Write a sequence for this structure.
């Protein structure tokens, strides 16, 4: 079977029509991983036992002629920040090196209930903190297009595995761009739904008001199928929204003629690479050809998004990561004599440099005397950033922009300068802060054959329009 | 310089981190560089802008109510067994670095 062209529909129908078995699909993917992942490093853990059990269940259903669920036999990789019962879940950190969750993340449970087969856990930046996957405590991920380049982050393993055909699709998480930016760097589709659309239950928390789970896939249609499977209210997550989930796949074929597409000049300013600009402008022309109306909009507070994000995300992270204390599940330093020494030394040894930096920044921003100047100030600017989108979406149905100011950069290029790394998220963080949905889809390549991503943003809970515009562009491009 | 060595020591203490001398020096440099950048937020007058803590503040919330009633949409009845069964004792202890059959074990709490 040609794994490169294997979409969800192709995999499922091959299993349903008995042209292959779920078991054979799993084995083909594991041999692909065996052959390819040595040079990529996308997987941290393989869940073979669980995958074979699920494949067997699907094959028995197929043999008995039972109707197969939507993702029957489709091999998937799960970012290692999502809990998987009985399968090691590290969050890319040493502090969870031996953690075996006793329960499943809701999104993972919903995929398995729909017949998907979990191949294993995807490498990522430690606690999803990073834009290059170089912050994994285990090993970096390399970009399948050019192994001297980063795959983006933090869902770098999730994006690279799809790009290298080691999984039909994967789940990632997006707090400041961590699904869309790696999708852009690796040339795949990455969708961040509206905040609250997908339950966060079982997602290891980084910044609770910003964390989103979403799919990385080969096609927009596959992303729509996966989103439809994992979306919807979950009583285990109080922030999961009780908003009806449309049939995203059916909605894809509605025409986009007459759709109003906003273009904000703030996303085309200084720092944007020329080749990326040209590719995105060409994509905008293509949308115009398809009958969309292009409307200039303004998002005037955009230059304040990165500082706002790095105060709010680190403040929330400093609280969320307080739980790693060496008592209930995290690693404990050896030879400690007192409780206080145990906390400090376990955390010193267990966390990497970027995680410590963010805990320190967040703790500082929340500390007495600085709370108003930093944390509260950032929350107020978050309101302004969200109002920018409200005003723009009064005029347009979607907004298009580059996903990242550049194509994939080299390993080591930004790892010594935290601020330079943070600026890689300049076009993605605002959507996380506002809670609106966004997708990154491929829109061409640089002269060096590196993928470029087109970002499409939509209104709260209007993933349908985002997916529809993305699908129309993908089919036409 | 906004952040001093003393601040780094104080914040590390709050965060339950010790940090080596080298890490502290790096932290001093990085925090100052990031906070310098963050300073641009002061260009904006936000005196009349309400803070936004959660995206969900924007839907479902009953703005006419105060306190927890504002967020009534997210509440549910307490259920004795919870929405899933509580973890069996042994499973809850299984990931602990040190436990006996009943409890998590930690080093001495009282120092003397």
């Amino acid at each position: 079977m040609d794994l490169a062209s294997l979409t969800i529909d192709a995999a499922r129908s091959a299993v349903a029509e008995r042209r292959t078995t779920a078991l054979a699909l799993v084995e083909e993917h594991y041999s692909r991983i065996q052959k390819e992942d040595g040079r990529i490093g996308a997987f941290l853990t393989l869940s073979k036992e669980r995958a074979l059990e699920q494949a067997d269940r699907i094959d028995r259903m197929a043999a008995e002629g039972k109707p197969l669920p939507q993702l029957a036999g489709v091999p998937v990789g799960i970012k290692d920040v999502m809990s998987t019962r009985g399968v090691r879940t590290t969050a890319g950190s040493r502090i969870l090196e031996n953690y075996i969750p006793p329960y499943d993340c809701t999104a993972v449970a919903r995929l398995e209930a729909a017949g998907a087969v979990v191949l294993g856990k995807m490498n990522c930046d430690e606690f999803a903190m990073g834009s290059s996957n170089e912050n994994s405590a285990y090993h970096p991920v390399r970009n399948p297009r050019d192994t001297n380049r980063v795959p983006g982050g933090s869902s770098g393993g999730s994006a690279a595995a799809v790009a290298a055909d080691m999984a039909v699709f994967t789940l990632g998480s997006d707090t400041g761009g961590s699904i869309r930016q790696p999708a852009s760097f690796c040339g795949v589709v990455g969708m961040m739904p509206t905040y609250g659309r997908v339950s966060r239950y079982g997602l290891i928390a980084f910044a609770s008001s910003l964390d989103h789970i979403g799919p990385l896939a080969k096609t927009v249609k596959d992303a729509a199928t996966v989103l439809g499977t994992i979306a919807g209210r979950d009583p285990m997550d109080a922030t999961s929204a009780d908003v009806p989930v449309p049939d995203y796949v059916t909605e894809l074929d509605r025409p986009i003629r007459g759709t109003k597409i906003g273009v904000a000049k703030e996303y085309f300013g200084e720092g944007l690479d020329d080749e990326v600009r040209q590719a995105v402008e060409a994509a905008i022309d293509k949308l115009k050809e398809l009958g969309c109306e292009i409307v200039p909009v303004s998002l005037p507070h955009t230059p304040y998004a990165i500082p706002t994000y790095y105060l709010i995300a680190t403040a929330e992270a400093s609280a969320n990561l307080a739980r790693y204390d060496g008592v209930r599940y995290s690693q404990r330093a050896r030879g400690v004599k007192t409780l206080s020494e145990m906390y400090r030394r376990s955390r010193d040894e267990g966390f990497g440099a970027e995680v410590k930096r963010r805990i320190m920044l967040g703790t500082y921003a929340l500390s007495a005397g600085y709370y108003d100047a930093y944390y509260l100030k950032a929350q107020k600017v978050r309101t302004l950033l969200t109002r920018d989108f409200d005003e723009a979406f009064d005029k347009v149905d979607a907004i298009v922009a580059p996903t990242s100011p550049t194509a994939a950069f080299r390993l080591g290029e930004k790892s010594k300068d935290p601020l330079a790394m943070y600026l890689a998220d300049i076009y993605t963080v605002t959507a996380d802060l506002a809670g609106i949905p966004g997708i990154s889809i491929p829109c061409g390549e640089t002269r060096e054959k590196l993928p470029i991503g087109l970002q499409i943003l939509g209104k709260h809970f209007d993933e349908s329009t985002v997916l529809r515009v993305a699908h129309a562009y993908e089919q036409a491009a | 310089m906004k952040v001093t060595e003393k601040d780094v020591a104080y914040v590390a203490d709050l965060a339950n981190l010790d940090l080596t001398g080298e890490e502290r020096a790096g932290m001093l440099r990085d925090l100052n560089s990031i906070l310098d950048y963050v300073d641009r937020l002061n260009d904006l007058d936000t005196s009349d802008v309400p803070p936004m803590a959660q995206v969900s503040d924007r839907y479902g919330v009953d703005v006419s109510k105060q306190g927890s009633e504002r967020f009534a949409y997210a509440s549910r009845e307490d259920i004795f067994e919870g929405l899933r069964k509580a973890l069996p004792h042994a499973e809850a202890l299984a990931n602990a670095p040190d436990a006996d059959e009943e409890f998590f074990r930690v080093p001495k709490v009282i120092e003397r």
